[in-house]
Amino acid sequence: MSKRQVHLAAHFPGVNNTTVWSDDRAESQIAFSSFEHFARNAERGLFDFLFLAEGLRLREQKGRIHDLDVVGRPNTLTILAALAGVTDHIGLVGTLQTTFNEPLELAKQLATLDHLSGGRAGWNVVTSSDAFHGANFRRGGFLDHADRYIRAAEFVDTARDLWDSWQADAVVVDRASGRFADRSRIRDVDHHGPQFDVTGTFPVPRSPQGRPVVVQAGDSDEGRHLAATRAEVVFSLHTEFEDARRFSEDLRARLQRAGRSADDLVILPGATFVLGDTTAEAEERARAIRRAQVSPATAIAFLEQVWNRDLSAYDVDGPLPEVEPDLDGGPITRGRVRHVRDVEPLVRGWRERAEAEHLSIRDLVIEVSTRGGFVGTPEHIAAEIDRYVQARATDGFVVVPHTNPYGLDEFVGRVIPLLQERGVYRQAYDPDATLRQTLGLDAA
Predict the structure, then answer these.
(1) What is the pTM of this model?
(2) What does the alpha-carbon distance between residue 152 and residue 208 come to, in Å, rounded to a whole number?
(3) What's the confidence (pLDDT) of residue 133?
């Protein structure tokens, strides 16, 4: 029986608490040289695709621009188009909103990227009901939270209808008259739904993949439903083995209920890694990295997001604040996804843990905020990745380095060859493959 093959994607490090900007080799998160190095190195590692996040507004805390956003958040599609010119095989996936975009314009941009890259474009579908972000747009924050995924589902359906409106052979080459589009092979789109009215002819011919690959990263029940009904790749937060397996089983069951095959969706949790020549060295490096990820200022800022209070007077190496969270005041943090729904029991649990384990503010934040991942020798990490995939807990991982732009280099140099030796990872790209084919997905 042949082994299941590992799929890997590379997440460009930048605006998150895992990026260590104090590292001596850290460079700009907006300079093209950073994106180019990261993309070329991910392609050297034969990754399926690279993955860029996008922000629509700089995050704020207590009226100040959040420190990790200080050098800006550039446009994803522009960067991916530029990277198409300096890479040959790796997929190019960008995070793009359904709340503040329109289907025709975004479908046109993605189809254009797919043409420019020779069939390597992908779209990470995200939503927002945040009025803070919405204030940058004409509609403001009008969208109710419950309607986010209703709009997203209709958005994806409309974009696919636009992409599918051209037959593959609609563009005709005639030696006498030149190149033209056969109108009989182009279908006008006539969509009328609760979110969108779109009528007319899509302006871009069918792209090399038929349509770009759709990625989804939401973890709510609505997000999982969108993934099971419309996505082709899901980027999850479930990294621990049993948690990852439960998530995968849930998604596979949802796929079946939606009338789709288990192979119609590639599941890739995000995972960090720390390598060492020995287990002890890797664990020591991991402790140092976690401490660098959570600077004193970052620890206080993290706690303030939960307490919803100014805690700058507290000693980061001292105990948790005795003051209770402010549950009624306006939020002091704007633009950040708030994952905490029930603050009081969370804070109570943190206090119990901090007292039992003698943890300072910074120690506790390190324990509860740093991303789970793989720590160990290259051999150990390769074996763990293989174990997850063979057990169908995942189909692979989105690798999230902790430094920019060189953080992926060590993984490519030391882990990828071991996966190849195990026979679970490609030795080379198929030179003619689209991203859809690289991922093992059916043709669109």
Answers:
(1) 0.92
(2) 24
(3) 65
pLDDT tens digit sequence for 384-411:
999 999 999 999 999 999 999 999 999 9
Tokens standing for 265? 């969706």
Kindly list the domain boundaries of the chain, sorted by start residue. Answer: 7-279+372-438, 295-369
DSSP string, 175-200: TTTEEEE-GGGBPPEEEE-SS-EEEE
How far apart, in whole angstroms, are the C-alpha atoms of residue 297 and residue 362?
A: 9
pLDDT tens, residue by residue, 313-344:
999 999 999 999 988 887 777 655 555 668 89
Identify any residues that bridge with 215 across adjacent strands, giving them in sequence order. Answer: 124, 233
Tell me the three state secondary structure of residue 82. Answer: helix
* CA–CA distances in Å: residue 389 to residues 62, 258, 332, 425: 43, 24, 41, 11
Q: What is the distance between the alpha carbons of residues 43 and 413, in angstroms, rounded to a whole number?
A: 12
Each residue of 37-76: b (16+ CB within 10 Å) or e? bbbbbbbebbbbbbbbbbbbbbbbbeeeebebbeeebbeb
Residues whose CB is less than 8 angstroms from the CB of residue 15 and which lie 6 or more positions away in sequence, other chains included: 29, 53, 55, 59, 68, 69, 73
CA torsion through residues 173, 432, 54, 215, sign: positive
Taking domain 7-279+372-438, whether its CATH number is 3.40.50.300 is answered by no
- Render pLDDT for 202-223 as a digit per residue (tens, 0 to 9): 999 999 999 999 999 878 899 9
Q: Is the pLDDT of residue 63 over 80?
A: no
What is the Rg, in whole angstroms, of the alpha carbon atoms belonging to the chain?
A: 23
Alpha-carbon span 175 to 341, nearest angstrom: 65
Closest CA relative to residue 367, chosen from 352, 381, 384, 353: 353
Residue 50 pairs with which residues in a beta bridge? 10, 92
Predicted confidence at residue 138, as pLDDT, reads 66
Cα separation of 444 and 327, whole Å? 48
CA 370 to chain centre: 17
Express as a percent the part of the chain with pLDDT over 70. 93
